[in-house]
Write a structure and sequence with these properties.
2 copies of one chain form a homodimer.
Chain A (H helix, E strand, L loop, with lengths): L24 H14 L2 H11 L5 E2 H4 L7 H13 L3 E6 L2 E6 L1 H11 L3 H4 L3
Antiparallel strand pairs in A: 1-3, 2-3
Chain A binds a DNA duplex (30 and 30 nucleotides) through helix 4.
DNA sequence: GGGCTAATTAGATGCTCATCGATACAAGGA
DNA sequence: TCCTTGTATCGATGAGCATCTAATTAGCCC
């Protein structure tokens, strides 16, 4: 496909840790969309498989890990991409994917509860 | 209600950071269940409202924050409780809720990508 | 170009879930 | 004991989504 990486993409600067202050309605909606992307066993495994490698991962290497049709995997990857959690690029016949560490780190910070992490007083 | 806190509860010791090694099928399923609980705008706001306070939060104080029926809020709180993210207890007429910091910290650790946080060499 | 493989898109289906109104339960006070 | 207020459960409904098969697009090689 042509616009695999340049998709919508959210997960930009949002947000302060949940425990710091009540999150806004808008932030909650945006975060929920990102979290929905990871709230699925298949996508969690996909994300982990991709993240656990140092280099990019060929989609063709992901397929045999699942008892699912290829279109289904493609659909899940698209969901992860639209959530801004992974990037991907076609090179020749194959498509390669990689995680976007900043996106994961943002989620990590979101759930942090310790004073230092949340930036509380 | 009688068994508000002692509900199922998952989110125990699970799991290693996604980026450390490919997550197992079982872990993915368990994590997805927890993440589904936070992958909703209303529950995210509920969680944040409860977490942002130092003391327990009365459910009666949460209701006016939403344009939703009382049963709906009650249902969302139950979902958060069953995911092990909050605890709650009835005291007299009112029910009070609090976050379980360990559960949030586990999610935080799950998404961490930096070497130190993920425990990578 | 023709054919092959990898991946995406389209359309259909069945299940999960967010929400509601109505009802039941819990607990305190008159 | 009865009424009132706060919360939970029930049953129904409509929207969203995970999955499939079939068809289409992208790019390589002969």
């Amino acid at each position: 496909m042509s616009k695999q990486t340049p998709l919508p993409v959210i997960a930009e600067e949002c947000c302060a840790p949940l425990a710091r202050e009540p999150i806004s309605k808008d932030d909650a909606a945006e975060l929920a969309r990102i979290l929905k992307a990871v709230a699925d066993p298949v996508r969690l495994r996909l994300l982990s498989l991709i993240a656990a490698r140092d280099e990019e991962t060929c989609v063709c290497d992901l397929l045999p890990e699942f008892d699912l049709s290829q279109p289904t995997i493609s659909h899940h990857l698209k969901t992860l991409r639209e959530a801004g959690l992974i990037g991907s690029e076609r090179r020749g016949t194959w498509v390669y994917s990689w995680v976007i560490p900043q996106a994961l780190d943002r989620l990590s910070a979101l759930f942090a509860t310790s004073k230092e992490d949340t930036g509380v007083r």
